[in-house]
Amino acid sequence: xxxxxxxxxxxxxxxxxxxxxxxxxxxxxxxxxxxxxxxxxxxxxxxxxxxxxxxxxxxxxxxxxxxxxxxxxxxxxxxxxxxxxxxxxxxxxxxxxxxxxxxxxxxxxxxxxxxxxxxxxxxxxxxxxxxxxxxxxxxxxxxxxxxxxxxxxxxxxxxxxxxxxxxxxxxxxxxxxxxxxxxxxxxxxxxxxxxxxxxxxxxxxxxxxxxxxxxxxxxxxxxxxxxxxxxxxxxxxxxxxxxxxxxxxxxxxxxxxxxxxxxxxxxxxxxxxxxxxxxxxxxxxxxxxxxxxxxxxxxxxxxxxxxxxxxxxxxxxxxxxxxxxxxxxxxxxxxxxxxxxxxxxxxxxxxxxxxxxxxxxxxxxxxxxxxxxxxxxxxxxxxxxxxxxxxxxxxxxxxxxxxxxxxxxxxxxxxxxxxxxxxxxxxxxxxxxxxxxxxxxxxxxxxxxxxxxxxxxxxxxxxxxxxxxxxxxxxxxxxxxxxxxxxxxxxxxxxxxxx
Length: 499
Description:
The protein is mostly helical. Helix content is 68%, strand content 1%. The chain is built from 21 helices and 2 strands. It has helices at 2-5, 11-17, 31-42, 45-59, 63-87, 94-101, 104-139, 161-176, 178-204, 231-237, 245-256, 262-267, 276-305, 316-323, 327-361, 380-396, 403-427, 442-456, 460-484, 486-489, 491-497, and strands spanning 220-221, 242-243. Strands 1-2 form a two-stranded antiparallel ribbon. The protein is globular.
């Protein structure tokens, strides 16, 4: 039993699978495309939606330090992802990497985790996009009916039709092809980066130094019964997260960490990259450096324009300009945010479908979903299925119920990838590695520690929901995946021995 649960798939076989005509994705992406994808997905909810929440509730002006802390944790993980993505250029990201190093059950766990991460991430961004569109409509004098708008804080039943419609439209674009997706992303990213630069430059002239006092607000204990009052953390580590103070910065970092999940989505496109050995590290690391810099600058400017206690939760950047008497900038930012969030949603959806496709190709999910479209060479079946499911999820679920669960799934993936780098270095030192994570095993160990630190700052209820999802994953694996896996049926061995 143990040997079957931890059977590994050879790297050479994983690469060979990508050449099967019925299951082969089209290679069309360059280093620039990957960097654009990374910037396109990273710059989004973190700046346009979550900045106001964490500044107001957790860190104050020190939100900039929270972005730095989250960025450092991501940089450590990015170095590990860059080595894996260039060594095993196969769709599936952390799932594929785990299959080659840790074994089938760990790979299934991480794949199941990624399906949840990207699905909820897509839904979160779609809801945030809907909020900005509704803000623009209100500026034009038209208000969405309650039953068809955001449910955030609403008592009545409603369905966010804008969020659901966005997901369905992007699903259609992804079915048509990756190159079309890359072109649309390039245009939208240019608009989005322009908006961010406008915020930084124009907002710098509106900073009031008094708003930075205090830069790190006085620590306040978390109220009993709140979502941050985590008995799990108190029991295991002897402390609880706090609002504000130094610990508030780490609590904020565990929330804004959601803003950095883009670079691991870049890794899911390895199989569709023309020269993955060279271009994957450039795309992953380049996009992370660019976005971390912009995040820090924006958070400094926004908390300087408006006191952190008065920042808006729904649209902090736009409302900060309104508060300083510049409504034109507010409208411009709302437009840029709405346009920009579309790429975040699309690339997260792209990442999920590629993980689902890779698991299906390995037999852990029904092989029906591993066939590509005869014309577009895209995994159209899982794309359509998941697009419809996420559209329904985005329509019914409030944003605050989703973000933290996405974070814990991402951090868990980081832990697994970092451990996998150490193991594969020992198991397969002969593999050609165009990019090598420096200072192994020090960097991977630091990555594990940083990710675990952020995980324990998340609310206890997030851990409970994550545990329920993982339990469901174990059930699916033992009822279906373990016996239908290509390694279990011997199909991999037959393929490997076929001339």
